[in-house]
Sequence to fold (90 residues):
Amino acid sequence: MNEHSDAVRADTQMLERDGADERPWRHVDRRESGVNAPPPVGTGQEREPIEQALSYQLSAAASYTFAPDGLSRTISIPVSLTTLELDEHA
Fold:
């Protein structure tokens, strides 16, 4: 992103205490704006191995949203109750 002086990256995390499957989930969101990021052409084969590995190794999910001025990615990872308790006491 260094070549774009108006580029902005924002990273956020959210801990969802009770997910749809009643497990806690951590959602990591990265939004990049101020860049020209046209939607990919084709099937997105570059993302598929990453999404499959996240799903297989971590039972995680990834989503991507392409907008005219940037990209948003979210990775959602189930966490243990121990991790949830540590976050709540931090």
Q: What stands out?
A: The beta strands are 8-16, 25-33, 61-67, 70-78.
